Amino acid sequence: MKILFDTNVLLDIALARKPFVQASMASWTWVAKGEDKPMVAPHSLATFYYMVRQAHGNTRAMEAVHDLLETGRVTTFDEACANNAMSLGFSDFEDAMVAAAAVSSDSELILTRNEADFKLSPVPCQTPEAFVAKLTKT
Questions:
Q1: How many domains does the chain have?
Q2: What is the pTM of this model?
Q3: How far is CA 126 from the centre of its chain?
Q4: Residues 110, 99: contact at Cβ < 8 Å?
Q5: How far apart are the C-alpha atoms of 43 and 110, rounded to whole Å?
Q6: 41-57: b or e for each residue (b if 16 or more CB lie within 10 Å)?
Q7: What is the distance between the alpha carbons of residues 39 and 101, in angstroms, rounded to a whole number?
Q8: Using one digit for the tens of pLDDT, what is the confidence trace for 60-118?
Q9: Alpha-carbon distance 104 to 41, whole Å?
Q10: CATH number for the domain including 121?
Q11: 117 lies in which domain range?
Q12: Bridge pairing between strands 125-126 and 109-111
């Protein structure tokens, strides 16, 4: 199952943000063990680097990006994706970019802590907590 991880979920993991880190990390780990690696939008990777650098310095930020790239995949994002993002009607362009990246990568799900921000997304979304809860029921 192709799953795109929103920036906030990536930051939960890298910055060990409580109480979110456990479900976010469990989600990433489960997806990373599957056939389809976790997906990340390119702009999320840039924000991820910036926020980890602010918290822990450049060396740790580069290590975190390296770790992310070892287990995950970055989606492509071109002019068509940008135009798709603009056409989605989101009030937040960054969220629209995540949704457009999910579409272009054929992702089946977006994992985010902000489900309300993705109500116009053509790709369904779910919180990491709900995703993990569903896994444990299976």
A1: 1
A2: 0.94
A3: 11
A4: yes
A5: 15
A6: bebbbeebbebbbeeee
A7: 9
A8: 999 999 999 999 999 999 999 999 999 999 999 999 999 999 999 999 999 999 999 99
A9: 10
A10: 3.40.50.1010
A11: 3-137
A12: parallel
